[in-house]
Amino acid sequence: MNHSDLSSTVTHLNRVRPSSRAKLANSDLTRALLLSAERLLDETFSVGRPTGEDSGFPGFLSRPRVVARAAQDFPRTEPTEAKFRDRWVAHHDFLRDVVGFTSWNAQHRLRTAMDKALAQVVRDTLSLHDASALMSTVWCDTCLGLPSTRLRLLTAASLGSPDTEPVSGTGQVEVLRETLARLCQAEGIPSAPDNALTTAAEVLSVLSDGLAVKTYLGQAQDNAREFGIVLSGIVKALGHGASELTEFPLSGSIWPSTHR
To answer: Please, which residues have CB within 8 angstroms of residue 197's CB and are 6 or more apart in sequence?
Structure first.
């Protein structure tokens, strides 16, 4: 179990004092309940869209299901529904913390994966073409399967519900921005302006979400190749001083046909 500080991530707990809320956020039981929700989310969407009585969002993350999963995976934390309710009185508060937790976890996983890929780019002095292919494969293999990515798509379709809110893509953009800056450096491209890197990262984040939608709808073909084409083009554009959104190459097929 990752014991990094969650006090700024898990913020909807039933405590008034910040110190008490921070202590509860970092307890083993709170982590176990959030990890169990993430695993349920991951497993539910790894086998397709949820079905059954609790198939709707957020039914498959109901209190009994999360507690039962925590009891199975983390028995030493002794989870109960009473302890769950002590932390989150309203279920939508729990869902908001699940959103924050999965996003935080995703950022950590993405950064770790991209750091390893960038280390290989530098070690093997890969060309831009090969580096883009490697980085794109690692990104798609990691990002498109993350629970937070699936949650992003699900909440985007459920914005009319008061119990849901959209998953922020800030962490994803931040990792992409860092990756672009380091990839440009590895390829000997002069440092790009901050606004150019941010715009480029936002473009790639939109592309990534579009590919995730296509994957979820069963329309994906070669995600890594498509992402790599745009990534390579963006790095070249940054090398030529591009700074506006219209200057970056965009694939015309990133969104599924049902959204065109």
So the answer is: 177, 180, 181, 238
CB 187 within 8 A of CB 131: yes
pLDDT given for residue 255 in this prediction = 39
- As a whole number of angstroms, the distance between CA 80 and CA 113 comes to 35
pTM, entire model = 0.73
Contact 107, 176 (CB under 8 A): no
> Would you list the domain boundaries of the chain?
18-89, 99-259
Residues 244-257: pLDDT tens digits? 545 555 544 443 44
Q: Which helix (H) or strand (E) holds 118?
A: helix 91-123
Distance, in Å, from the CA atom of 228 to the CA atom of 242, rounded to the nearest integer, reads 18
Dihedral sign of CA atoms 47, 52, 56, 59 in order: negative
Predicted local distance difference test score (pLDDT) of residue 24? 96
What are the CA-CA distances from residue 67 to residues 41, 43, 48, 106, 136 (Å)? 14, 16, 23, 22, 37
* Structural contact between residues 171 and 106, judged by C-beta atoms closer than 8 angstroms: yes
Instruction: Select from 213, 250, 245 the least CA-distant residue to 233.
Output: 250
